[in-house]
Design a protein that fits this description.
Elements: E1 12-17, E2 20-25, E3 32-38, E4 43-46, H1 55-62, E5 67-70, H2 76-79, E6 88-91, H3 95-98, H4 106-113, E7 137-139, E8 144-146, E9 151-156, E10 165-169, E11 174-178, E12 185-187, H5 195-205, E13 212-215, H6 225-239, E14 249-251, E15 256-258
Parallel strand pairs: 4-5, 5-6, 6-7, 11-13, 12-15
Antiparallel strand pairs: 1-2, 2-3, 3-4, 8-9, 9-10, 10-11, 14-15
Length: 259
């Protein structure tokens, strides 16, 4: 899939298959991707974006099934649309964040949102708040999410954040990687990140029988070769004694690692 050339709406919707869609926010520099998986009984929305547009309206154009929202991690650019979905899941290690203790000040988040190339007239930055709420289910490693005819496995992949999760659908080989793997700057320099855990998480998902990587940001055309290249980069950083906060940013062909 390629990014569309003309963007007339806040969200861009592209079909992955007959029951799977990506809903993207290309007007913001982060180019956040959210994924809608439609099952026989329910639909699963993996990440809900920045909260700039009303993602529920886009979802309702695609399915009338009850929606479960689940974030790969509780960062503002992945939970912005959670307000529209009463049924949502979170990993136990980020339960505190989603209940009002998000580790960034709201003004910093607002400043980042304002870096968009365009914002809808209906969006008022002064009314923006970081989402908080009580999840309907608390997830842990190796849990499964059954939406009827589609089973999604939960992999706890900490590093970028304490409760970061990747989601794998064995039947299709789809791996939804959130902020663990994508073409761009892989971030593990914040106080809440863990460079060693990040490396271990990437090694773990490399063992899966992946057919398609579906990332949280940027380019949607990704080969599973990227995972192996990231592992090799982490190995080089570790051998140099730099697998720790404060080691700076190292650039590679399709990505960089910022520690």
């Amino acid at each position: 899939m390629n990014k569309v050339d003309i963007l007339e709406e806040w969200f861009t919707v592209q079909k992955i298959d007959e029951k799977t869609y990506v809903i993207s926010e290309y007007h913001h520099w982060e180019e956040t991707h959210c994924y809608l998986l439609i099952g026989a009984e329910k639909a699963l929305l993996i990440d809900t974006g920045l909260g700039v547009g009303k993602i529920d309206e886009e979802v309702r154009k695609l399915t009338d099934k009850p929606i479960i929202a689940v974030a790969t991690h509780i960062h503002w650019d992945h939970i912005g649309g959670h307000q529209y979905f009463p049924e949502f899941y979170v990993h136990k290690d980020e339960l505190d964040w989603v209940q009002g203790h998000f580790p960034l000040p709201v003004q910093m988040v607002k400043n980042s949102i304002l870096e968009a190339s365009w914002l809808p007239e209906s969006f008022d930055i002064n009314q923006y708040e970081i989402f908080k709420g009580k999840p309907t289910r608390v997830l842990k490693d190796n849990d499964a999410i059954d939406i009827g005819g589609r089973m999604i496995q939960v992999f706890h992949t900490p590093g970028h954040s304490p409760g970061h999760m990747c989601f794998f659908e064995a039947a299709t080989g789809y791996l939804f990687t959130g902020d663990l793997i994508y073409k761009g700057a892989l971030l593990a320099f914040y106080p809440s990140t863990d460079p060693v855990a990040y490396f271990e998480s990437v090694k773990r998902i490399s063992q899966l029988p992946i057919q398609k990587i579906l990332p949280g940001h940027f380019d949607l055309d990704i080969s599973d070769r990227l995972i192996h290249n990231v592992i090799k980069a982490f190995e080089e950083i570790k051998e140099a004694g730099n697998l720790q906060h404060g080691s700076g940013k190292t650039d590679y062909q399709d990505f960089s690692i910022h520690l």
